[in-house]
C-alpha cells in the first residue's frame, strides 16, 4: 500500500494544509531515520571489521572514545527532541484552524455511517447530509465531532489527520481543501462489525457551487410527480422505512437512520459501500444484511410492484 | 494426576468455553429470514383451503445476546421509554415486574407490539420490521430476568438508570387477564 502514492484516499497525496504538514513531517521523519540507520550501520560494520590495536589500552584513546560516545548521545537526544517538536507542531495543526472557520459542521458518528449537520443561525436552515461532507475550497471548515454509540475516528487522509469521535464529548478539528475534488474518508478506529464499510466522501467545490448546494439541501423534498412515485411515497409512509428515516417536507421525521430528503443526489449508498444506483438501492432495501452483514437496517420483503414504486420515489428525491 | 485425567479435564474445560460461545452467535442472514412472519391481521377464523401454516412463536433472537442487545438499543430509539420508562413503567405498564396483562410468552409479547393493546398501546404492524419486533421481545423478556443469565445485558450505552438486567432478581410471570 505504501507504494500507492496518489489516489483519493492517500496521505501521500495531500490536498490541504493539515495533510501537507503531516506529509512533510512524515517525509522528514523517514529521511532522518534512513540517515541515522545508515550512519549506525556504517559504524557497526567498521567496528566489526576493525582489529584490536596496541594503542587501544592507552588512557588518551579511552578519553577520546568517551568524548565520541558523549557526542553521539548528544546528537541522538537532539534528533529526538527535533522529531518530537516537529510531531507536536504537525499534531497541533489538527486542532487550530488557520483563520476563522467559514462554516461549522457537526460530525456525528453512528454504527456504521456518518452524519454531517450544517449549522445556521436560522433553525430552519439547519440541515444534515449523511455520509457526504461538502466543503468550499480554500477556506477552513470547523468540525465538531461527536458519537452516538462507540468511539469512531474521522479521517480523510488527503486533507487532514485522524480525530476521534468520543461518546459524550465534543472534539474539535478542522478541514480545508485547496483544490476541488472528491476525497474519500474512512473510520479509523475499530467500531464494530461494519467498521471497514464506514466510509465517507468529502466533496470540495468552489464557493459559489457550494452555496448552490447548500441552498438546494435546505429545501424540503420534492413532491412525487408521476403516479408510480406517488404510490412509492405511500409505500414509504406505510412500511417500516418511516420508523427510522426522515424526509423533510413529509410525515417521516425519525432520526434513527440517515435522512433521505435528497438521497437521490448522493454519490454513494450505505456509507460509501455502494455507488448510488437503482439496482444497488433495491438490493439494499430488500436485504441489506447480504451487503453489509450486521448493519442496523432490517430486511424488507416488499411486493415487487411496491418495491419498484418505492425505488422510483426514493430515486426522485434529488 | 494421570495423563488421561489431565486430558479429560482439559476436554471438559474447552467444551465449556465452546458452549459459552453460543450466546454470541450472529448469523445475520439466517436470523433475519427465520424471524419473518406474514404480517396480515387475522379477521376471521375461517381460512379457504384449510388451515394456514402455523406462525413461528419465537425467533432465533430469543435467548440470544445479540438479539437482546439490539432490542435494548431499539427500545430507546423507538421511544418505548416514552411510556414504559426503562422498564419501571409510567404512562404504560411496568415491564420489569412479574405482571403480564396479555401474557409473557414471546408470541404474546409479539402480538402486543404488532396488534397494539387497549388503553394506549399503538399497533406497530408495518411500522417496525418483524426482525426488530423479535429483538424487542427478547429485550422485554430480559427486563424481568426471563432469559438465561449469560444473555442478559450487563451494561448500558448511556447513563445508568437502574440495576443492570443481569443483576436483577428474575420475576416469575403472573398473568392477570385471560389471553
In short:
The complex is a heterodimer of chains A (318) and B (179). Chain A is built from seven helices and twelve strands. Chain A is an alpha+beta fold and 318 residues long.
Top keywords for this entry?
heterodimer; A: Immunoglobulin-like; Immunoglobulin-like; B: 179 residues; mainly alpha; two-stranded parallel ribbon; 6 helices; 2% strand; globular
Indicate the low-confidence ranges of chain A by residue numbers.
Answer: none
**Whole-number radius of gyration of chain B?**
19 Å
Number of strands of chain B: 2
General shape of chain B: globular
For the CA atoms, what is the radius of gyration of chain A? 27 Å
First-residue to last-residue Cα separation of chain A: 36 Å
The CATH H-level homologous superfamily of the domain at 78-179 in chain B: Cytochrome c-like domain
Helical percentage of chain B: 25-40%
Q: Give the strand content of chain B.
A: under 5%
The CATH architecture of the largest domain in chain A is Sandwich
